[in-house]
Design goal:
Layout (H helix, E strand, L loop, with lengths): L1 E5 L3 H13 L4 E6 L25 H20 L3 H4 L1 E10 L15 E5 L2 H11 L5 E10 L1 H14 L3 E4 L5 H6 L4 E4 L5 H4 L6 E11 L6 E4 L6 E4 L4 E4 L3 E2 L8 H14 L7 E12 L4 E7 L7 E7 L5 H27 L1
């Protein structure tokens, strides 16, 4: 079977590797106009944690996120951290929006979860000059795409996978070239590729700084969107989540918001060396699209398309869980094909 993957971000590359690994005899090829280190994911901090997922069903998010968390754990335990960028890190997540007394489902997946006490919240509010209503402490993973993607790509190619730098305009291009299955991991590009106008950019601006003393991530989960996420060689300071904004240029007002907000949370960051500012456009959608459909072609042959895009700010968090679902969909398609021949 000839399989085309469209997109080489964290969703596309994990899907390609998972498919080639599960079906060694398949001819699998990735098509993309950008590869690592030039994808949106390469600029991200890679923190595991569901974020900006619209009304995607919580049970699906929990299943995909849990599967990915287990995969990161396997990579970490296998001694592959230096190659894959997987780090175990303590974290704190706070919010000024008190919704209810039920902890989010992701808290059942991370290690060492505990709710922040009222007394500690009071102290944090005094220190940060904030109004946090609730918060959680836990231990989880960061997985840096700038390391993970080349490692996965190398393994994918070693299995016989292929890549081609090419901007696919329509899925019909690939159907006409004789592909039997197309896996659409085009992210924000789905706006044009499959005319999905529900796709919208969620602009994210960050700083990367030198601050080796920062060893704990802190996320303010509200409109300020400030966060501090240590990576292996730098610390990521954020951020913004500006929906519908296509501007990829660095804005001075956002830079000030990020720096001042993060220094308020962690005063020791004042005067730290700034490596660079970066802007990426997250692939926002009302809910993740992970489903199969049939595409016609000029030859009359019907092509199966598996869509796997619209992961908002959670590409790293959900990548392996969604790739696992893609593999399962292909298995179901093969069963259906066999049954149709009986």
């Amino acid at each position: 079977m000839r399989v085309a993957i469209v997109g080489a971000g964290v969703i596309g590359v994990t899907s390609a590797f998972a498919v080639k690994n599960a079906f060694p005899n398949f001819d699998v090829k990735i098509f993309a106009d950008a590869f690592s280190p030039d994808t949106t994911g390469d600029g991200s901090a890679g923190l595991w944690g569901p974020f900006l997922l619209g009304d995607t069903p919580v049970d699906n998010i929990t299943r995909w996120a849990g599967c990915t968390h287990q995969w990161f754990e396997q990579l970490w335990k296998a001694g592959l951290s230096s190659k894959t960028g997987v780090s175990l890190i303590p974290g704190t997540r706070v919010t000024s929006d008190y919704k209810d007394d039920i902890d989010p489902k992701w808290t059942k997946i991370v290690y060492g979860f505990q709710k922040i006490t009222d007394e500690k919240l009071r102290r944090l509010n005094e220190e940060h000059k904030s109004n946090y209503k609730q918060g959680w402490q836990f231990i989880t993973y960061t997985t840096e795409p700038v390391l993970l993607l080349p490692w996965l790509m190398k393994r994918f190619i070693a299995l016989g996978g292929k890549i081609e730098k090419r901007n696919i305009k329509t899925l019909h291009e690939l159907a006409e070239e004789g592909y039997d299955l197309i896996i659409n991991c085009s992210g924000l590009g789905a706006r044009e590729l499959v005319a999905d106008k529900t796709m919208t950019p969620i602009r994210g601006q960050v700083y990367r700084v030198k601050a080796p003393w920062a060893m704990h991530c802190f996320i303010v989960d509200d409109d300020s969107c400030n966060y501090i996420i240590p990576n292996i060689h730098s610390v990521v300071l954020g951020g913004t989540h500006q929906e519908g904004d296509f501007d990829r240029s660095v804005r001075e007002e956002d830079s000030k918001h990020i720096y001042n907000g993060c220094c308020r949370v962690m005063p020791s960051l004042k005067g730290c060396q700034i490596i660079r500012a970066w802007v990426g456009l997250r692939p926002g959608r009302p809910r993740i699209r992970l489903e199969c459909e049939t595409l016609g072609s000029s030859t009359g042959k019907e092509i199966k398309v598996i869509h796997n895009y619209g992961h908002g700010g959670s590409g790293v968090t959900l990548c392996w869980g969604c790739a696992t679902d893609v593999v399962e969909m292909i298995r179901n398609l093969k069963v259906q094909e066999l049954n149709s021949k009986l």
